[in-house]
Design brief:
Layout (H helix, E strand, L loop, with lengths): L1 H6 L4 E6 L8 H14 L7 E4 L10 H14 L5 E5 L1 H10 L9 E5 L19 E3 L23 E5 L4
Parallel strand pairs: 1-2, 2-3, 3-4, 4-5
Antiparallel strand pairs: 1-6
Helix pairs in contact: 2-3
């Protein structure tokens, strides 16, 4: 979808699900992401790191520290934003110091018509991107990148269109 998006002069971004398991190295995740996204011409406006709670893979203070490593590495090349939902960011703040997240953009997952709450460490109105609803005009999805024999972050490209 990258060529079509660029040809249509649509703003694009790339997305990486962060694997919080201790056995998955943050540097390897960042380098894998950079390699894949470079191969399609870069991330667009934002390189997005998805931090979300799952019942099978819980976050820990170590996960949060490794997410910071990912952001620090990728931000040497591109603008980085963190994607999550406010109550999960609140949970992370109880586990570790997350003040470093303020150095990065904020993409809030909030599927409601009400203005989302921007949690600490961001300030009210700080979100650069608001994922409003799956019914957003122009929504399209890209691809998952697979590295044989090892866990890898999911990477997809998405179109965000002004309405």
């Amino acid at each position: 979808n990258v060529k079509d998006m660029d040809d249509a002069e649509m703003e694009r971004l790339s997305y990486c699900w962060f694997d919080p398991r201790p056995s998955v190295d943050a540097i390897e995740q960042a380098e894998f992401y950079i390699r894949i996204v470079d191969s399609v011409g870069g991330p667009g406006k934002w390189a997005i790191l998805d931090t979300e709670n799952t019942s099978k893979i819980p976050y820990t203070a170590s996960s949060i520290a490794r997410a910071r490593v990912w952001c620090d590495i990728v931000s040497q090349r591109w603008n980085v934003a963190i994607y999550s939902y406010p109550s999960f960011i609140d949970q992370l703040a109880l586990m570790a110091d997350i003040s470093w997240m303020r150095n990065y953009g904020w993409m809030v997952a909030h599927w409601d018509v009400n203005v989302p709450r921007d949690p600490y460490p961001w300030y009210p109105g700080a979100h650069q991107i608001w994922q409003f609803t799956a019914k957003m005009p122009g929504s399209r999805y890209g691809f998952n990148a697979i590295a044989p024999g090892k866990p890898t972050p999911k990477i997809c490209l998405a179109i965000m269109e002004d309405t």
